[in-house]
Write a structure and sequence with these properties.
alpha/beta; Rossmann fold; 2 domains; six-stranded mixed beta sheet; 9 strands; about 35% helix
Length: about 250
């Protein structure tokens, strides 16, 4: 099965407002993403990072603004991987098959997609195991297999390694890089600055529901230009050669 081509760029977000619980979670987001590969989204808790991903996936309805994919191209084929994996009480293979159940595919093609996805995440030998009995890292690999089975043009990742140990985190990062290299555009929410540096081409800093800064990963992490980015980065783990006062 061929891997998906990348989605058409740029992705433009114009004046996006999303309200929840009586407050503006996203307060007029203006953003253009034109880079291939991984765009990381960072910022303090409550900045609106997860809500932005949900709006891009159609799970959060904006009250104002719009999202334009690749110059009014059709909404790209998407997949979403959350921090907490939700698996049904069934086999690993069945959980992956659910991702393509609604697609107009012949049974053989659907089965081929599942087999291909499980091979890509290293779980071919666990296909008939009970998904909920896997380790946390293995369950997250099942989530990535579900994403892979959809051959997504756009992959949304919300803290996919936040609850994993270092070995499982390394494995998930390998899968993110493989999907990136297969042509999928990825938006990654992460508080792990080392992970952002390893995977991302550019970084968006959100603060109070707005874009505080957007630029190449090295420039934003080492030489942040905005007060909001400097303030956030000072609160994270020390970054090599990072000068938050510049």
């Amino acid at each position: 099965m061929a891997d998906a081509p990348g989605m058409q760029l740029p992705l433009r977000i114009e004046g996006l407002v999303v309200e929840a619980g009586g407050r503006r979670v996203l307060d007029g987001i203006d953003l253009e993403v034109a880079t291939r590969g991984v765009t990381a989204i960072i910022g303090p808790n409550g900045a609106g990072k997860s809500t932005l991903l949900r709006a891009l996936d159609g799970l959060a309805a904006p009250s104002a603004g719009r999202i334009v994919f690749g110059g009014d191209a059709p909404r790209p084929r998407r997949a979403f991987v959350f921090q907490k994996t939700a698996l049904v009480r069934a086999s690993v293979a069945r959980n992956v098959a659910l991702a393509v159940e609604a697609e107009p595919l012949a049974a053989a093609e659907r089965a081929a997609r599942v087999d291909h996805a499980l091979a890509r995440v290293g779980l071919s030998g666990r296909a008939q195991d009970a998904a909920r009995r896997l380790s946390g890292g293995e369950q997250q690999r099942v989530a990535f297999a579900r994403a892979w089975a959809r051959a997504p043009e756009l992959l949304l990742l919300d803290e996919p390694t936040a609850s994993l140990d270092p070995a499982a985190t390394e494995e998930i990062e390998r899968l993110v890089a493989a999907l990136r290299d297969a042509g999928t555009k990825i938006l990654l929410v992460s508080h792990n600055l080392g992970q952002v540096a390893r995977l991302a081409e550019d970084v968006v800093v959100l603060a109070a529901g707005r874009v505080a800064e957007h630029g190449p990963v090295d420039a934003v992490l080492r030489r942040p230009a905005s007060d909001a980015a400097r303030s956030y980065l000072r609160g994270e783990l020390p970054w090599p050669s990072f000068d938050a006062s510049s």
